[in-house]
Amino acid sequence: MAVVWYGGAPDNRGMLWEAFENALMPLRCVFCGVRTCERERYICSGCNEDLRHAAPPPPAPPLEFELTPLAFEFPLDEAIKAFKFRRRLFYGPALAQILCDACEVLPDDIDAVLPVPLHWRRRWFRGFNQAREIGAPVARKLGVPLVREVRKRRATPHQSELEYRQRVRNLRAAFIVRSALRYQHVLIVDDVITTGTTARELARILLAAGVAKVSAIAIARA
Ligand SMILES: [Zn+2]
Prior knowledge:
Elements: H1 10-24, H2 45-50, E1 66-67, E2 70-71, H3 76-85, H4 91-102, E3 112-115, H5 120-126, H6 130-142, E4 150-152, H7 164-171, E5 175-177, E6 185-193, H8 197-208, E7 213-221
Parallel strand pairs: 1-7, 2-7, 3-6, 6-7
Antiparallel strand pairs: 4-5
Helix pairs in contact: 4-6
């Protein structure tokens, strides 16, 4: 295979490198394994059609928008669990692609992205923060920075294991903002939104720190 260097603008270099990489290691659909074309990338059009789209939930204050484009069902649920708990990192770009596509409908005043922070201990055990893996591509796509001033200061039990009231209590004072924030509209990114307690708690502290508006996006609602 001949690689031709066209010598175009720096932007072309990324595209050319991608094409080169694609020729060496063709992309396959993460769900069914078929070779995908350049437009499809990580999810083939057949599987993409099979993923069930979920109706948008009613707006839940203090969140401006809440976007969870897909239903949390097979094969997406298994993919998310494998990515998160069994380190199947190859799902990451596919899951990020779903979020990036969904971002098209968001208002254009978003000026920062906050992947839901993970406590350092859990991050250390897991080796990565799944929300950051899928949130960073969203920030790149929107051309905005990641919010780095928010930390999770105590390790809390998994929200999914708790009753509603316990969830709220569980998260109280779990996150901390380390300085005043001057963003217009922050987009919180998580892999799955269950009851939305985490997103609302983060929205509350972001608004208290000076952010004007907060929205949230996740791949699916469980
Ligand atoms: Zn497929």
